[in-house]
Amino acid sequence: MMSSTVEISTEDKIKAAAKAVFTRKGFAATTVRDISAEADINLSLVNYYFRSKEKLFELIMTETVQQLFDQIQPVVNNPSTTLSEKIELLVRHYIDMISQNLDFPLFMVNEVMSGAIQSSMVTNILNMQKSVFAKQILDLKAEGNFDFDHVHIMMNIMSMTIFPFFSREVVIKSNTIDNEQFNRLIEDRKRLIPIWIKQMLGIQ
User: Fold this and answer.
1) CA–CA dist 112, 132 (Å, integer)
2) Where does the HTH tetR-type domain lie (predicted)?
3) Contacts with 163 (C-beta within 8 Å, 6 or more apart), sequence order
4) Residue pLDDT, tens place only, 14-69
5) Are the beta carbons of 137 and 131 closer than 8 angstroms?
6) What's 42's DSSP letter?
7) Cα separation of 201 and 177, whole Å?
8) CA 170 vs CA 119, 174, 177: distances in Å
């Protein structure tokens, strides 16, 4: 029993260290040696538990995706909040999560391009289509507020929140804006994206 406890503690320590380094340096610039130094754990132990930086990154990002959906499910299935309130909360959750996990967009693209989408992710997306949030959007469509496929709404929320993070390095390295200005723009988008989505839906 004691051995199992030690193993769990060591794995968690490595994952916490890896997440901190990935967030600080990015996936490409991070080495296994960086992670072992952050965790204050022997390099061979990191390799023993996780085999490679790629495996560790995939595990952390998969857990991050699940944590995001765990946070979102109560929002999209709350019968007491309006559609407008749900949109504002969803945008805030997405942006806050990505701001704390800047490699998340990279992970998503790699998953999509490799065809290795996690089954849990597919299940969570399907659950979104059955949520109170989806029903509220469909009710608006039935009332004639808009005439396009309701899936566009979720696609737009995701793309409007995720894509700016893809452009982050480009706009910063081109000296268009600095990191502080970029963060201010992202904060602005927490307010602006709900406005744009609501305009599409014809609601306040």
Assistant:
1) 27
2) 8-68
3) 105
4) 998 998 888 777 788 889 999 999 999 999 999 999 988 888 888 887 787 788 78
5) no
6) -
7) 32
8) 32, 6, 10
